[in-house]
Amino acid sequence: MSSGIWRRLLRASRARWNRVAFGSEPRRGASAAGRGVNVFNRVMKRNQKNWAAAREDGHLYQYLRDEVGGRVADRVYDIARTFPLALDVGGGRSHIAEHLNQGMVERLVLMDVSQNSLRRRSSSLIPTAPLLADEEFLPFRENTFHLVMSSLSLHWTNDLPGALREIQRVLKPDGVFIGAMVGGDSLYELRCSLQLAETEREGGFSPRVSPFTAVTDLGHLLGGAGFNMLTVDIDEVQVLYPGITEVMTDLQGMGESNCSWNRRSLLHRDSMLAAAAIYKELYGTVGGAIPATFQIYHMIGWKPHESQARPLKRGSGTASFGDLSKISRPTNSSAA
Question: How many CB atoms lie within 10 A of CB 130?
Fold first, then answer.
């Protein structure tokens, strides 16, 4: 892709995002399909990420994003082709790009809702253009990118099916989406400890950890968004901390604090002390540390193209499973 086309793409994308952000052009995809779905305060999430990225010691809290970004990059390396133009949705500090080279991706658009995250991005071997935009609306034309990546960003979208449809829309035919998101029973130790403590001390509990997507739903969501040749697998990353205060401090430093509309901002001191004791009692290790478990869903989906392999139609087989029992097995003959 020539530098002139590259610059025109970025100018058009920024202009389109500005029109959407200031209301002169309606959003499509996520917002249109997800009208009424409003679990997360997206303004709060943007502010949380900006605050975390502005910290001078912010790099100390990026260990989970660095680890998962490297695993996403490994999956890009598994595909034996070079991608002329790629998009990183929610890329922030280039946690994926820093593991790639131009032999895999020739040019990359790094998109994030947090301006501070883009300013603090790591250097990479790939020519990279930062773009301030929201994961729930991709300000690009259809069939623009050969590859779309995302790492630890999509679990904060209000309309995940719509966000996946947007990703599929901007991919070229035979383009691939490779992503990772937090899901399932992530942070179950923290969730259970806080719920038990608040129930004991306050007679009830409020959500302290945001809701996560179940892995059983993810394949259906990808298929419903128009992807085929799907791959979904789960990684489990467990991190040890001295105590519950360090768990919550690090989540805040990652920009991963809860931003659900129904959250309760105040946690009483008595409930916090009780939660710390419950956490150590239920989950503490012999050495006194406590674990925090993150379930990471990895997903790969391809935009359909006529060159891709297709399953045969039902009933087109020439053999029946009922005939398998009739197949004779070779007998072992002993040597003379």
Answer: 19
Distance between CA atoms of 161 and 30, rounded to whole angstroms?
7
Q: Kindly tell me the burial class for residue 21, based on how many C-beta atoms sit within 10 Å of its own C-beta (0-12, 13-18, 19 or more).
A: middle
The answer to whether residues 184 and 215 touch, using CB atoms and an 8 Å cutoff, is yes
Closest by CA position to 230, among listed 242, 214, 217, 211: 217
Per-residue confidence at 33, pLDDT binned at 50, 70, 90? very low
Task: Give the H or E element holding residue 167.
Answer: helix 160-170
Cβ neighbours, 10 Å, residue 169: 18
Q: What is the end-to-end Cα distance of the chain in Å, rounded?
A: 70
CA–CA separation, 153 vs 117, rounded Å?
13
What is the SS3 assignment for 149? strand
In 209-243, which residue ranges form alpha helices assigned H by DSSP? Answer: 215-224
C-beta neighbour count of 270 within 10 angstroms:
13
Where do we find the tokens 């045969």? 312
- Residues 149-172: tens digit of each pLDDT: 999 999 999 989 999 999 999 999
> Torsion over CA of 147, 150, 151 and 157, rounded to 10 degrees?
-170
**Residue 128 exposed, middle or buried by CB count within 10 Å (0-12, 13-18, 19+):** buried
Q: Look at 247 and 328; give whichever has higher pLDDT.
A: 247
Which residue from 116, 2, 102, 144 is spatially nearest to 56, judged by alpha carbons?
Answer: 116
Q: What confidence tens digit (pLDDT) does each residue in 248-263 have?
A: 999 999 999 888 876 7
Residue 317 confidence class, pLDDT cut points 50, 70, 90: low
Segment 189-225, tens digit of pLDDT? 998 998 888 888 776 555 556 668 888 889 899 999 9
Using the structure block, give the residue that is written with the tokens 């998962």: 68
Which one-letter amino acid corresponds to residue 14?
Answer: R
Name the nearest CA neighbour of 89 among 108, 66, 115, 62.
108
Those residues whose C-beta lies under 8 Å from the C-beta of residue 183, and which sit 6 or more positions away, are 155, 212, 213, 214, 215, 218, 295, 296, 297
